[in-house]
# Entry
Amino acid sequence: MPIICLPDEAARAAVGPLPPGTSVVLWDGTGEPPPEFEQVEFVVPRYPGAPLPAEVLAAAPRLKVIQLLSAGVEPWLDRIPPGVTLCNGRGIHGASTAELAVAGLLSVMRDLPGFRTAQDEHRWAQHPTGGMAGANVLVVGAGDIGRRIATALGAFDATVTLVARHARDGVRSMDELPGLLPHQDSVVLAVPLTPETRALVDAGFLARMRDGAVLVNIARGALVDTGALVAELRAGRLRAFLDVTDPEPLPPDHPLWDAPGVLITPHVGGGTHGWEQRAYRLAREQILRFVAGEPLENVVTDGY
# Structure
């Protein structure tokens, strides 16, 4: 009889009826786990929330699957016991995160923050701005979120180039990044945080970007060398839209807050109404696959 762990009663209700014989344990990852957790085979952790302690996971000998409700998995990678399959929440937050990336990029390109300042000062401050039509945009990451961003920007007549670990039809290789950067009006980061992508956007990366280009980060703050970015913003050479930062949360006295040309949102890419329904629909589908002995979706391999 499979035993499934869900974070709370709301999650249990959202998942809905499960096959006969399936048992559910409720634990949100805080405090001591219930005794039944030792027999759990499939865990859906609370979202948002800290990863479950490694020692708790190691003390569950029947554990086979951890299904996250987040796209990012890096906090979990060093605590997954051998033989346990980790699945991410690809598809849950893809549309909302891509939407925010496009909204932020358009806001910076069309200088909406500047117009808002003029509005606060009761000034009718007409001036021309940049736009997406004819712009070159490089999207780093060709997964669910990256492809949604590319599709949306294509509707505005932008020329979009996708880059990923491995080249394939319609996708360039990460090895080509240095040569691509000088030709882009914007670079959008939609790639997972891994040892290979940590500090990917360093001083050299930023120096290759053309003057006036916009950096968009809706992935993970640690992809970017914050000090190097602040230097470019202060110089007035680059602009940025950031939904994630390093450090995060951004301390009140951090220089990034006051750097010119940057628009910051507090990691709200997935924070739209309805995410719970999408999340637990995926969880239910995965639980049903597990119980039926079918292959799981969204299995994480090499940090992706």
The chain is about 30% helix and 15% strand.
